[in-house]
Design a protein that fits this description.
mainly alpha
Length: 63
Amino acid sequence: MHRGSDRHAPRQDDELKHELEGTLRGNRPNRAEEWRDPEPPADDDPDVPPLGNRESPHGNRGE
């Protein structure tokens, strides 16, 4: 299906995908500036439980 928003031909899309595959799957940061990388957690950071299974602090669960 052809859309008017296409910027590349399908062959160019495949070439660009192949060029980026190593960057996206690499075992290293993919940012050019080191200051943009997320900071690892410190040893004294408290453990935070995941957000998925927490109850409301007021006792009601959205009822």
